[in-house]
Write a structure and sequence with these properties.
Chain A has helices at about 10-25, 35-40, 65-80, 130-140, 160, 255-270, 290-300, 305-315, 330-345, 365-370, 395, 415-430, 465-485, 495-505, 505-525, 540-545; strands spanning about 30, 60, 80-85, 105, 115-120, 125, 145, 180-185, 195, 230-235, 240, 245-250, 280, 320-330, 350-360, 405, 405-410, 450-455, 460. By secondary structure, chain A is an alpha+beta fold. The radius of gyration of chain A is 24 Å and the shape is globular. The relative contact order of chain A is 0.12. Chain B has a single domain, classed as Cytochrome Bc1 Complex, Chain D, domain 2 (Orthogonal Bundle). Chain B is globular and about 30 Å long. The N and C termini of chain B lie far apart (about 50 Å). Residues about 1-25 of chain B have low confidence and may be disordered. The chains are: A alpha+beta, B mainly alpha. The interface of A and B includes residues 35 and 88 of A. Bound molecules: flavin-adenine dinucleotide. Flavin-adenine dinucleotide binds near residues 86 and 161 of chain A.
């Protein structure tokens, strides 16, 4: 890829700025060669090799907060856009590439110190380049009695992940990574350092305990935003539980789903079954859409609940299941599971209970090979199986080289899930895709403890196939617009679709975005910081786009 | 003070003389350590996570269908430039690595480690 200059900056001015960046961080840590910049492309871009792929003009890797400040000041002096990444593993949502071509990536990977882990007050304070692996290892090496909550890919960072509203797999409320943060240090677009929450108090010891301090709580501006470069952030940690238990609830009728969801909500919100609930349908699963009886069910369009009840009865399997997970002392988790069974049996006739397992914690090395590690706060990379070369089929010779998916925010209610699954089905029908991922047996994921995310089907990337990529971009855009129209906007998206996603949040003529733009103009008048991230553009680029 | 410097100098010289061996072992140790940190979670030989598999090992098993080992550490045909290319350019679902993650020195060490059983 030919090197992009920041828009409107001459090669000579850029060379001067690069020299200053080198002065600030050391020549070894400024990258400008084509070869080096290739590693700042988005490996999973659906615009790979196209005109609209997002490309960096350079990358700068500071090692200290002072160096971050210096970089920001230089960027301001030359009006060069910069884009901060922590570990830069935001695959599916932009990788390590900027959201505005020609930006200089500020790569914070070298700043990877674990500044503090407290297993009495249960928090950590880390730098941006510290990965989940690093924090996990730090805790393990010292025998500290706290868990981290990690997303599926272990090589990302608590800071980078939380700043994109990432989610994980242990107990609520820790699965909501942004929600579980407490206190941050930020380099503002003018190069000044600010600490939020109790960090603003020069005397308080509660920076990682109490989020709010006094006055407006501004932390939200820095997640999916472009108001500063985060250099430190605190996270609340789950004190290592003594044991874990799981059991699966099955309910017979299709229409029992709503009651099942309500009871699982109760169990989670009352802090009885705080682990991630795994919903599924015993009528769904791989290959279901090819079965003749399924084809018959769907022959006249989306079936009614009564038809689905009859379908479940004919198949003689319970329609739905929910795998519950409990963390805590043995007596407590056993009592909670017993209570869950009593509560659900009394409310849903015919409910049955299977797959009960109890284990003390931590898991043994043997168990670590057989259990879903992220449920135990252990980072790993197994999820990348979804892009692995399959043993057979057309993709054996031509495996996917990336992955893109779409997740809509849906309230935790059976009727809303039914509506969302039908919305995905309608979109896939309209786009003439065989609706293999949209069935009446689709299930939401429960990464976040207060909402469901409904997937609309992941799609594999093919870097070299322009037509495939064009179709993927069109499909993605259709999901964003049509799912939002149906009531289900996405929670996160790749840079190419961020403007479109933000546009869906249009209450009172986009009052929220207009407010964010007013703040942007005040805080970052030169518009140097991550222009375009989640639809927030500085004035000069906003006017150009309009 | 002079003698101290002389002794220090001698140790340094000895270190340099021994480095044909020492550096190799050091490089291999670094290569193994960095491989275990960055690559093992996708490329290890032993299965992890019931019902799941390791994406790198599974892909290479699917690619070679038994003609080469699935686990990179068991390979006897890898050459350093090839490993370095894959680290910086990625391969199919495997993303590439930046120098801030794996420096050139570390990359060369990983490549040396994965090529340690290759006969040229
Ligand atoms: C197969 C697969 C599975 C995945 N599973 C999950 C999952 O289970 N949960 C999940 O949450 N995600 C998941 N993801 C998405 C993504 O890989 C992770 O969220 C990952 O943690 C994000 O990358 P990162 O942590 O390196 O963040 P980064 O890439 O470092 O940061 C993400 C973005 O945040 C902003 N940012 C980062 N650091 C700063 C800073 N210091 N200051 C200002 N802005 C900053 C930037 O805009 C940056 O692009 C998955 C992706 C794939 C491909």
């Amino acid at each position: 890829m030919p090197i992009k200059l920041p828009p409107g900056i001459s090669a000579a001015t850029f060379a001067e700025a690069v020299k200053e960046f080198q002065g600030a961080v050391g020549a070894d840590w400024v990258f400008t060669s084509e070869e080096d910049l290739d590693t700042y492309r988005d490996a999973y871009s659906i615009s790979w090799g196209h005109d609209d792929e997002y490309l960096a003009s350079a990358a700068v890797a500071p090692d200290t907060v002072e160096q971050v400040q210096a970089v920001v000041r230089i960027a301001n002096k030359y009006k060069i856009p910069v884009y901060a990444i922590s570990t830069g593993k935001n695959l599916t949502y932009g990788g390590s590439a900027p959201t505005y071509s020609g930006s200089v990536v500020v790569d914070l990977k070298r700043m990877k110190r674990v500044l503090k882990v407290d297993d009495k007050r249960n928090f950590a304070l880390v730098e941006p380049g510290c990965s989940y692996y690093d924090l996990y290892q730090h805790i393990k090496d010292r025998g500290l009695k706290v868990w981290i909550d990690c997303p599926d890919p272990g090589w990302g960072s608590p800071i980078g992940n939380a700043l994109d509203h990432g989610i994980g797999y242990t107990a609520s409320p820790y699965r909501d990574h942004w929600g579980a943060h407490c206190g941050m240090e930020v380099v503002l677009p003018n190069g000044e350092i600010m600490r939020t929450g109790m960090g603003a108090s020069p005397t308080s010891d509660t920076w990682q305990d109490y989020k709010y301090a006094v006055g407006p709580h501004v932390d939200g501006l820095f997640a999916q935003g472009n108001f500063g470069i985060v250099t430190k952030m605190g996270f609340w940690l789950f004190p290592q539980p003594e044991s874990w238990m799981t059991g699966t609830v099955h309910v017979p009728k299709y229409s029992d789903y709503s009651a099942l969801v309500d009871h699982c909500n109760y169990l989670e919100d009352a802090h009885l079954a705080t682990g991630q609930t795994g919903y599924g349908s015993n009528l769904g699963g791989q290959g279901v859409t090819a079965a003749p009886e399924y084809r018959a069910l769907m022959a006249n369009g989306w079936p009614t609940i009564e038809q689905l009840d009859a379908y479940a009865a004919q198949r003689k399997v319970p329609a739905w299941r929910a795998k519950l997970q409990f963390y805590g002392p043995e007596k407590a988790v056993r009592a909670s599971w017993a209570y869950a069974q009593r509560r659900i049996s009394a409310a849903i006739p015919g409910a049955t209970f299977t797959d009960v397992e109890f284990s003390t914690l931590p898991l043994s090395p043997a168990q670590e090979k057989t259990h879903h590690l992220v449920n135990f706060g252990i980072p790993n990379m197994a999820i990348f199986q979804i892009v692995a070369r399959p043993a057979a089929g057309p993709n054996n010779a031509n495996p996917y080289d990336g992955h893109t998916d779409f997740f809509a925010v849906v309230s935790r209610s059976g009727s809303e899930v039914f509506r969302a699954m039908k919305a995905v089905y309608d979109i896939q029908k309209e786009l003439k895709i065989d609706p293999i991922t949209a069935t009446p047996f689709s299930s939401p994921v429960t990464w976040h403890h207060k909402v469901f995310f409904m997937g609309a089907g992941g799609v594999g990337n093919q870097r070299g196939d322009a037509e495939h990529n064009r179709r993927m971009r069109a499909l993605y855009a259709a999901y964003i617009e049509k799912m939002a129209a149906a009531g289900f906007p996405a929670y996160r998206t790749n840079p190419g679709a961020q403007d479109l996603l933000v546009k869906q949040f249009s209450f009172n003529d986009h009052a929220l975005l207009r407010f964010q733009e007013a703040l942007k103009d005040a805080v970052d008048p030169n518009g140097i910081l991550s222009p375009g991230r989640y639809g927030i553009w500085p004035k000069h680029l906003r006017q150009k786009k309009a | 003070m002079k003698t101290f410097i002389a002794i220090l100098g001698a140790t340094t010289v000895l270190g340099v003389v021994g480095s044909a061996f020492a550096a190799d072992a050091g490089q291999l140790a670094m290569g193994k350590e960095r491989f275990d940190y960055w690559c093992d979670t996708c490329h290890a030989g032993d299965p992890r996570e019931a019902g799941r598999f390791l994406p790198g090992t599974a892909s290479l098993n699917a690619k070679y269908n038994g003609s080469r080992p699935g686990a990179l550490v068991d390979r006897t045909d890898l050459l350093p430039p090839y490993v370095e290319l894959v680290i910086r350019k990625g391969m199919e679902g495997m993303p590439f690595f930046r120098k801030t993650e794996i420096s050139d020195t570390e990359m060369k060490a990983i490549a040396a480690y994965l090529s340690r059983n290759t006969r040229q």
